[in-house]
Amino acid sequence: MADMKQEEISHPPMDQLQGLEYCIDSNPSWGEAIALGFQHYILCLGTAVMIPTLLVPLMGGNAHDKAKVVQTMLFVTGINTMLQTLFGTRLPTIIGGSYAFVIPVISIIKDPSLAQITDDHTRFIMTMRAIQGALIISSCIQIILGYSQLWGICSRFFSPLGMVPVVALVGLGLFERGFPVIGRCVEIGLPMLVLFVALSQYLKHVQVRHFPILERFSVLISIALVWVYAHILTASGTYKHTSLLTQINCRTDRANLITSADWIDIPYPLQWGPPTFSADHAFGMMAAVVVSLIESAGAFKAAARLASATPPPPYVLSRGIGWQEYNAFALYVNNQGIGLLFDGLFGTGTGSTVSVENIGLLGSTRIGSRRVIQISAGFMIFFSILGRFGALFASIPFTMFAAIYCVMFGYVGAVGLSFMQFTNMNSMRSLFIIGVSLFLGISIPEYFFRYTMSALHGPAHTRAGWFNDYINTVFSSPPTVGLIVAVILDNTLEVRDAARDRGMPWWARFRTFRGDSRNEEFYTLPFNLNRFFPPS
């Protein structure tokens, strides 16, 4: 080892990830782009179905209500994604439903004034209106942080060293949605995982007419094959005498979406009625907004890397965070169709964040094209309007999505770890900060999760419901805990002489929009809008 030259054992740090077939501003052929967009649409269905499946029954809703919420979530996701790729960060990211809002939403569901309503449908409608009102009010936090540049100022305390645990935990922190879900139906989940890894990695060089079809469409092919296999198991009566939980996770006919969905249904603002507003509900929801903001910031960093773009500067992050929440609020206040949407206005039952699984798919396919994601947004809008056709795809067992998540979340976690190349990992300070941040970022949320599962309430359980929601929501998010620990340690522990160890010389170019010439190529607004919204 001592005789080896340095260039033989080292890999120089790279601003942009190499090996992608298409980067953010290059595009495959239209036929390939359409097929890839449909694949992204299929992948985002897991979250779009799972969140309403969890929340709607608790709200008193029936199968038809769940189908309508799923359609609404997909419709809003499509428009949010289109706006984000055009006017937000312009990264190839899908803006879908967020699990961060589940805790405050459940608190609203358990509100005595709503829980005492005896008629289930009335309780569902009134609860949805309360959730809408809380989302609309709490969006002010993200608007302020985004468009006032406060989030950009806060991000100046970040360094590559501090970003390692945050971005890594955006992926690795979702481990509960991976193999633990596969274990609920191993006979479907495990073949799905093995087949997907085989197609996307071991057989990726197999080509049809000089086209790597297995690598590009491994998600579609593996889902189609295992879906048919799962349907055969269902039709043959394999699960007739199994437990209800097994049937829900294994059968292909338990979603009740196809028969419950309308043939054609266009979601529209205030479709559940006028929102109702409560200070307690709004304060509790603000914690989820902050968590969503942090998770989105980490996801944007990962998306930029897997799209072979430079790290988005603070101005671009602020623009993306602002668009993620601004549009619907503007629509609600001004009655103008600037954004046409917002989760609180349309009533999706939850807020929005960046879809982590779709970021992982950028790496799996090696396609980081913005156009592909925009086409995917078109599929979301189209199939949300044609309810029963969309419900057909949405009835895919969630166990199959969990198998794909094992790979996709792993990709994103690895991208976070790749930021270590810009830091000094031979420094004990660096090892301490990354190690402690990663460990506590996993350990603390796991404690909150297990406590909640056993006690049926979070560790924070005072008479102030909004305070409980704040604490339980913030410390149940691995990226948020990782950010808090990493930023505090990185900015207080031997900071004076640690700039190079932290990776700040490399990071300095990407702290301003004009710090690197490539920023204009990747992040400039379309239609020459930078004249009216100049970078600050």
From TrEMBL:
<feature type="transmembrane region" description="Helical">
    <location>
        <begin position="130"/>
        <end position="151"/>
    </location>
</feature>
<feature type="transmembrane region" description="Helical">
    <location>
        <begin position="372"/>
        <end position="394"/>
    </location>
</feature>
<comment type="similarity">
    <text>Belongs to the nucleobase:cation symporter-2 (NCS2) (TC 2.A.40) family.</text>
</comment>
<protein>
    <recommendedName>
        <fullName>Nucleobase-ascorbate transporter 2</fullName>
    </recommendedName>
</protein>
<feature type="transmembrane region" description="Helical">
    <location>
        <begin position="157"/>
        <end position="174"/>
    </location>
</feature>
<feature type="transmembrane region" description="Helical">
    <location>
        <begin position="219"/>
        <end position="239"/>
    </location>
</feature>
<dbReference type="InterPro" id="IPR035906">
    <property type="entry name" value="MetI-like_sf"/>
</dbReference>
<keyword id="KW-0472">Membrane</keyword>
<dbReference type="Pfam" id="PF00860">
    <property type="entry name" value="Xan_ur_permease"/>
</dbReference>
<dbReference type="InterPro" id="IPR006043">
    <property type="entry name" value="NCS2"/>
</dbReference>
<feature type="transmembrane region" description="Helical">
    <location>
        <begin position="400"/>
        <end position="419"/>
    </location>
</feature>
<feature type="transmembrane region" description="Helical">
    <location>
        <begin position="38"/>
        <end position="57"/>
    </location>
</feature>
<feature type="transmembrane region" description="Helical">
    <location>
        <begin position="93"/>
        <end position="109"/>
    </location>
</feature>
<feature type="transmembrane region" description="Helical">
    <location>
        <begin position="181"/>
        <end position="199"/>
    </location>
</feature>
<feature type="transmembrane region" description="Helical">
    <location>
        <begin position="431"/>
        <end position="450"/>
    </location>
</feature>
<keyword id="KW-1133">Transmembrane helix</keyword>
<dbReference type="GO" id="GO:0016020">
    <property type="term" value="C:membrane"/>
</dbReference>
<keyword id="KW-0812">Transmembrane</keyword>
<dbReference type="GO" id="GO:0022857">
    <property type="term" value="F:transmembrane transporter activity"/>
</dbReference>
